[in-house]
Amino acid sequence: MAKFSPREFVDEKISRLKSEIGGETSIVALSGGVDSSVTAVLGFKAAGRNLKAVFLEDGFMRIGEAERVSRVFRNMGISVNVHDVQKEFLSALKGIRDAEDKRKAFRETFYKTFSRIAREEGAKIVLQGTIAADIVETAGGVKTQHNVLEQIGINPLEKYGFKIVEPLKELYKNQVRMVARELGLPDEIVNRRPFPGPGLAIRILGEVTEEKLSIIKKATSIVDDELADVECFQAFPVLLEGKATGVGGESSRKYGYMIALRIVESEDAITAKYVRLDWSRLERIRDIIIRNIPEVSRVLYDITDKPPATIEFE
Ligand code: XMP
Hints:
Elements: H1 6-21, E1 26-30, H2 34-47, E2 51-57, H3 65-75, E3 80-84, H4 86-93, H5 99-120, E4 125-127, H6 132-139, H7 156-159, E5 163-165, H8 173-182, H9 187-190, H10 210-226, E6 234-247, E7 253-265, E8 273-274, H11 279-292, E9 296-301
Parallel strand pairs: 1-2, 1-4, 2-3, 4-5, 7-9
Antiparallel strand pairs: 6-7, 7-8
Helix pairs in contact: 1-2, 1-8, 2-8, 4-5, 10-11
The structure holds xanthosine-5'-monophosphate.
């Protein structure tokens, strides 16, 4: 196979995109990740202001994400419209325990809110940052990725009457990062660790509640800050179901939530190895979590590879 050239990929994609979306209004939903960011920049290079960039604040994103995305794109001369749709997502997920049902509810709410926003923005074409691993995982039946794919005939946005364009669908993550660098995206985007479409909704095992959401958001910020310098594919906390015993004031028993830490190395998310992080770093994260999130009584470390486990817990 010929060596992948990001320069050639960019030139070729921009000229193809010019004919696919150039004269019409199109839209891209940014997530803060590298895939949607690269998709957006390629789209802007092809269509300029005819491409609308939006960020859906669904309530399951990391703390500060909307501001971060807006800042990064503003610095590149691209403005991002942030839409607050948190209420719709929270009520759609209420009472749902099963992981795939949560994904489905999340996906349907995403398509409903996003297609409404797309219509308001006057767009007929949707640019999506689907990459090759999404196709492999979804087609293989492991999990239904939220940016579902036209190849397997289940992209609901088509049913809403939109044309879908997926400029990255033949690329793997490392190639997307090469393209991101070629396009001049900053390191904080190029090296951003993957984040699942349904976001923190699938990092709370079982039913999502506002209390659990607030806990996982705080824990995620702590892990992101503490492990920013660690070279790994993904590093994140998961809020487990149920509660475990801890020691409260005056040696009384108290029940608290359990947080598991997942830190993995991977090339393409198809297989992964857990990272042998220094004990001292694990202990530091444990202390910060316990100190700052009183509802948590235990911090656990996941030492399972993929396979047999998946990277996410749900
Ligand atoms: P798993 O857990 O299947 O994850 O080993 C593989 C990669 O995919 C991400 N992931 C998702 N991404 N929607 C997404 O967009 C999802 O529903 C989803 N589930 C898992 C996961 O973070 C990892 O990078």
